[in-house]
Amino acid sequence: MGASGHPRPTTPTTDTLAREGVVFESASPATPHTSYAITSLLTGKYMRPLLLQGAGADSDTWASLLRTYGYRTAAFFPPAVFFIDTERFAPMQDGQLGFEYVKVEFAEGEKRIRQVQHYLDGASTTPLFVWVHLFGPHEPYVAHPEYPFGSRDIDRYDSEIAATDATLGTIVERFRKARPNGVVIVTADHGEEFGEHGGRYHGTTVYEEQVRVPLIFSAPGTVPPRRVTEVVQSIDVLPTVLAALAIPRPPRVRGRDLSALIAGGAPSGPGLAHAETDEQVLLARGTLRLICARRAGACRLYDLARDPGQTRDAAPERPGELAKLRAELRELSASHGQYESRGLRAEGRGWPGALVRAIAGDGDAAPEVAALLDDVDLEIRRKAAEVLFDLRHPETASALELALARDEDPRVRQLAALALARLGREAPLAGELLENADETLRRLAALAFAEAGDARGEGTLIEWWRSDPVDFSRRRELLGAFAKLRSRAAISALLERLDDVRLRPHIARALAEIGDPAARPVLAAALSGERSHEARAALLEASIALGGGPELVAPLVRLLGVPDPLPNALEAAVRAGILAQVGGPSERAFERLAAHSGAAARLRVTVPKGGNGAGVRALVRARCEPASGSGEVLMTRAPPTQGARGELTVPQRDTHESVLEHAVRLEIPCTGEAREVHARAPASLGVRAGAPAELVVVATPSVIIEALALVPLADEIPPPPPEPFAQGPEVEPAPLGRHPTSP
């Protein structure tokens, strides 16, 4: 966003809304994943921890609440809103999030504009609430010709944002024409990572690039423009709107009313934001960001005022603030579900706070949960034993052994035995459960024994893997069990799920550990069409681990030539023994280059065939010692110049222009670690796809070259065609159990 300092002109509409409205500069979703972020926004709650408890699916939404007070409601969103953990969202999906009128379809641009216009044209004078979710800025990123920012992922992402902003502009214009006094609120479900913390896309971490989203309230003539620095959350939007409309706030809503901040009141404090993923949890206060790994309980503290890129852990320097924020996070995490009455347990009672934290994956809660094995409430004891199986914390073994020995309830004893078996402790009862009639106990027993290398439950695990639904984290555990067993019997079942983009990298790693070369052709074929950066790396590594070689040449050439080349692919080519086939020198020629470190070496390479005809890319893998200042590699067809002693040296930037204009110069970061860098070869270098090339390669003395290659530039792998989606009826009221106050 330009309003947030982005230099590209991607969001003129949003920037105008920001200038005219109230901008919250630090807003976060409850979870940086569409499904959880949207449902949290529309309910004013942290939905992920609620749904993990089996609670919250009956929550009121914006639409259901506003319909109660006479509003007509309409929603326009893609089916991808419920893409992950679909079974958890089934009640909300079936109830269409409480909206009367819905258009569930992958529609962007003019098509979505026409749909919204059609609805506005037919709407009466009754108050309206219209929600439009534009899905364009998601992978696969498509470059729009009218917004040509470049071919890299981040360029195409910006192009998607620009196209979405243009759509937003037209929708806002037509909405305000139909409803001149309407209020426009702009926000998003998550950010997007492009390697800032080693990952891609979203839903994986709670660092700023994934959890900071725009939040703008635009009501020209009603609310003066201003910018608010206090930390807020997307779940705050619903209670804020309800307060503005004088609609009573339901007691189950967790967000806070931002009305005072919108009206220009002084901040009440540093603000608060809480967000979580499967593996991480965030607590934000002011400029501080506490980020904890759930199971391990390890936390880092960042101060955005001093470290906006979140690269330096401030926890060792600020132990007092760390302890205070960790205590606050524990308290907040334990509160999830305390306002819910349905889906928790018998008689509507909630779980103890330690169990709530543990259900969400908080490993620090394990000792407190172990103490609940002595609780008088049977349901609490059962749940505690079940959760301790998942947490796998050794310090709970003594409490589990006591429960196994003396609890009168068979279920508690069975679950305690399984939790002990998973910790590697002796529990004969666990072995008996491998043949138990109860499917859940039988499966958990098979998992516990497989993780210890015991294959007696292998068939049960394969059947479990093939069933639906299975939680994503549980599938990852099953993959770990198959890898531990080196289960060749599971290979066909694993390959059946290779089309699951979230599971694909984990399946590839499991197949590598199983070690059967029979999976190589399938992995190579998957790599050829893979778009996910994480999955590309995992598929390549698995293929090499299984002995892959020639079948990797074509996909590797393509993935070295795409706008964002696969990291460390040259090193992988060396290990696979195919560097010469992907545009590198022969092994013998490369040995000559290594022997002439700091001097010049002549190499012959053959640029592979293919590409998009736009040119050739030069890639080098090299390392430079930290004390060296700077390092460079030069590739040229012209002879390099001689130094004072007759040695061949790297030409300087301000001399020998006739050489430099025909050369590729690559700067090597002097970090002590091998890095792969690349640059486009100038046309004057005279290299082309499918032809041999004679090169002179020179490196500064501080640089050690480990691999190099020339490959044809290639287009990014195109996305698959969209799957058919059956659109339901346009108007289908969601059951509310009550009636609007006006027609």
Describe the overall structure:
- The longest helix has 26 residues, at 153-178.
- The protein has a 4-stranded mixed β-sheet with strand order 6-9-1-10, covered by helices on one side.
- Strand 3, helix 5 (90-94) and strand 4 (101-104) form a beta-alpha-beta unit.
- Among the domains are: 2-329, Alkaline Phosphatase, subunit A (3-Layer(aba) Sandwich); 580-712, Jelly Rolls (Sandwich), CATH 2.60.120.
- Helix 11 packs across helix 12 and helix 18 (439-451) crosses helix 19.
- It is α+β, with helices and mostly antiparallel strands.
Strand residue content: 5-15%
> What coarse outline follows from CA principal-axis ratios?
globular
The CATH topology label of the domain at 2-329 is Alkaline Phosphatase, subunit A
* SSE class: alpha+beta
Largest sheet: 4 strands, mixed
Round the mean pLDDT to the nearest integer and report it.
91
Q: Briefly, what CATH class of the domain at 2-329?
A: Alpha Beta
CATH architecture of the domain at 2-329: 3-Layer(aba) Sandwich
Can you count the beta strands?
Answer: 22
Rg, Å, rounded = 29 Å
Spatial order of the strands forming the largest sheet:
6-9-1-10
Distance between the termini: 40 Å
Going by CATH, the homologous superfamily of the domain at 2-329 would be Alkaline Phosphatase, subunit A
The poorly predicted ranges are: 640-657, 731-743
Number of helices: 28
Helical proportion, percent range: 25-40%
